[in-house]
Amino acid sequence: MDIDTSSPVMVTGATGYVAGWIVKALLDAGLTVHAAVRDPDSAAKVQHLADMAADAPGSIRFFKADLLDEGSYGAAMNGCSIVFHTASPFVIDVADPQRDLVDPAVKGTANVLNSVNGTQSVKRVVLTSSCAAIYGDAADCAHAPGGILTEAVWNTSSSLTHQPYSFSKAEAEKAAWEIAAAQSRWDLVVINPSLIIGPGTRPDATSEVFRTIRQMGDGTLKSGAPRVGIGVVDVREVAQAHINAAFTPEAEGRHILNGTNTDFVEIGQALAETFGKDYPLPTKALPKPVLWLIGPFVNKSLTRRFIARNVNHPWKADNAKSRQALGVSYRPMKDSLTEMFQQMIEAGAFKKA
């Protein structure tokens, strides 16, 4: 793949889990990266990225920007040919879904793309969306063509009161396509990952998935895990897909990134093969009737509607477009989980049983 290094590229949310690997790949390719972050003066947040640049042929510059600060991405975007928009909150438990999820996702996307409209150098935007913009509950898979999710499917089951995170991703991606369709100078390519797993570019990487894996390792789920159908994909494959989407001229549309169709019980079992002697990992499924009774009292996100529409429902997605159009190849789920869990052990996320 021919990567043009003559102009800089911008990454929003550059300190994030996925963005860290995108930045690394860009630096390794010799690009100048404009890293848009909320606090560029925080060494704790940006030092790992500066260290990456010191060991790579590329270079990095940090810019202050915020999703809800209109026009704040303009300086970072100036002169850039590609914009990678990764910044968006990934939190399940929130006090106010509109304020904490939907507004940052939707208004933030509009803020970034409005700046793209005002920056003549930008030719392509690569947007980090999610499979959550394609489906809301695992039960939705049964209604997809052939029972398999594709890029043609949109999430119609989520709302502010049910699966608000998924709702925020669907609304943000819709907003992006609307803004892109209203102009003709730059094009939009979208990456739709399933649940992202794998090690972070720093030992204290944060994402909702780390909270889930931590609960598996610290004994919270030792009695069993809910058999919730999901897909998983390694963070490094997601990052590479972004790079390929940016520099493959014919890339277009949405791309499902999914390495394995699985569920949380299978994830616990995969981890237990390597770490089961030392950590109380879940290897059995919690019965759905038990979850129905106790779920809402244990975790407010485990509503009875969520349990009904996700537990014991298989999840299936077609990753053919990502393999054929972007050249993505997928590593085994166990390899990603093992590296992730080992990194968390070394970071002190949990103690041996």
UniProtKB/TrEMBL annotation:
Domain of life (superkingdom): Bacteria
Transmembrane segments: none
Domain NAD-dependent epimerase/dehydratase: 9-251
InterPro entries with a match to the protein in the record: Epimerase_deHydtase (IPR001509), NAD(P)-bd_dom_sf (IPR036291), NAD(P)_dehydrat-like (IPR050425)
Gene3D superfamilies xrefs: NAD(P)-binding Rossmann-like Domain
Keywords, sorted A to Z: Oxidoreductase
Keyword Oxidoreductase: yes
Family, similarity comment: Belongs to the NAD(P)-dependent epimerase/dehydratase family. Dihydroflavonol-4-reductase subfamily.
Name this protein carries in UniProt: NAD-dependent epimerase/dehydratase family protein
Organism: Hoeflea poritis
